[in-house]
């Protein structure tokens, strides 16, 4: 056994956060990366990286995008497979961001793990928040209009993300705007579309007998993060 194979045989944990837009998946993932030294695997970033580096996979992705098609599940899985082969040896705990999004992707991920990475175990966490909670969050979310900056602010009462002066970015003094996607009617539509996918994904994992942990995210991040660490079994490590 080579040194690389030896280290990859140690137990690995792959976290999947399942939750609607506005549930704070990104914020929670950032907290894990900063405070627990976990690695985040973003399939969106990985796509861009493969295209920029003109890899075989990147060329296929680029072709799909230029032909106005969606990037196929098999390409996404090929990308994830490649990443696991390179990096699962160095990272104990990885958060999967933007993947698996669909049941076919979840199926492919499970068979990939069974065949090639049997030391990796899925940890599925469902982020729970009411529709009203999502609407309140997203409708009070503002972005810096400056494309280079894009800092995120919130006008929700008591939020730590409130801009210091009026509706102007603290960092670059550009105007703050709300995304079209974040208007109430649009948010409600996005939510109902989202829950159909979520249910299918959760049903898939339940049928496989995977444990799904629930995390209430309708509270300040600090408290969410404490609950998260306890659920994930990281409190005393
Ligand atoms: Zn700005």
Note down, in words, how this protein is organized:
This protein is an alpha/beta fold and 237 residues long. The protein is 47% helix and 16% strand. The chain contains 9 helices and 8 strands. It has helices at 3-8, 25-36, 43-52, 56-66, 73-87, 103-116, 131-139, 184-207, 221-231, and strands at 12-18, 39-42, 93-97, 120-128, 141-144, 152-154, 176-177, 212-216. It has a 5-stranded parallel beta sheet with strand order 2-3-1-4-8, with helices on both faces. It has a 3-stranded antiparallel beta sheet with strand order 6-5-7. Strand 5 (141-144) and strand 6 form a beta hairpin. Helix 3 (43-52) crosses helix 4, helix 5 packs parallel to helix 6 and helix 7 packs across helix 8. The mean pLDDT is 90. Zinc ion binds next to loops. Zinc ion is lined by residues 144, 146, 149, 151, 169, 171-172, 174.
How is the secondary structure organized here?
Elements: H1 3-8, E1 12-18, H2 25-36, E2 39-42, H3 43-52, H4 56-66, H5 73-87, E3 93-97, H6 103-116, E4 120-128, H7 131-139, E5 141-144, E6 152-154, E7 176-177, H8 184-207, E8 212-216, H9 221-231
Parallel strand pairs: 1-3, 1-4, 2-3, 4-8
Antiparallel strand pairs: 5-6, 5-7
Helix pairs in contact: 3-4, 5-6, 7-8
